[in-house]
Write a structure and sequence with these properties.
Blueprint (H helix, E strand, L loop, with lengths): L8 H7 L1 H6 L5 H5 L9 H13 L8 H10 L3 H13 L6 H10 L4 H16 L1 H8 L3
Helix pairs in contact: 5-6, 6-8, 7-8, 8-9
InterPro entries: BTB/POZ_dom, SKP1/BTB/POZ_sf
Pfam family, one: BTB
Protein name: BTB domain-containing protein
Length: about 140
């Protein structure tokens, strides 16, 4: 949308390995001191940057989108936090979406643990199991 969100380079670079590499100066982002992110809303970006600054994720943040951002920009602590929140909030209504989001990011070692926890919760809960095995 062309809007800017001003941040400190050091916060981005220390909070994200990807931003760290981008802002070193070898890439156009480093020379321009500007990173363009076009695949999220400004509100989602604010939640992400707030996490990088304070290590906190607002309750109203879209955890699935934050997981995507954390994975894309290599923020392992946020990946783990999102995985934990997603598994803790699993219901029969969202269990398939949670599993899909965790599997999509399955290459992340941090999420392996949460995928296993999700599986155990599903097997222990008849309602979750029924929701997963329900053929539409």
């Amino acid at each position: 949308s062309g809007e800017e969100l001003r941040c400190h380079r050091v916060v981005l670079a220390t909070g994200s390995a990807v931003f760290g590499r981008m802002l070193q100066g070898y890439f156009k982002e480093g020379a321009a001191a500007r990173v363009i992110i076009s695949d999220i809303t400004k509100e989602q970006l604010r939640h992400f940057v707030r996490y990088l600054y304070f290590g906190e994720l607002d309750d109203e943040a879209d955890v699935s989108k934050m997981l995507q951002m954390a994975d894309k920009y290599d923020v392992p602590e946020l990946v783990a936090l999102c995985g934990k929140r997603m598994v803790a909030s699993m219901t029969p209504g969202n269990v398939k979406d949670v599993l899909r989001a965790l599997r999509k990011r399955g290459a992340s070692v941090a999420l392996d643990e949460f995928t296993e926890i999700a599986k155990r919760r599903i097997h222990a809960s008849p309602a979750l199991f029924d929701a997963v095995t329900d053929v539409e």
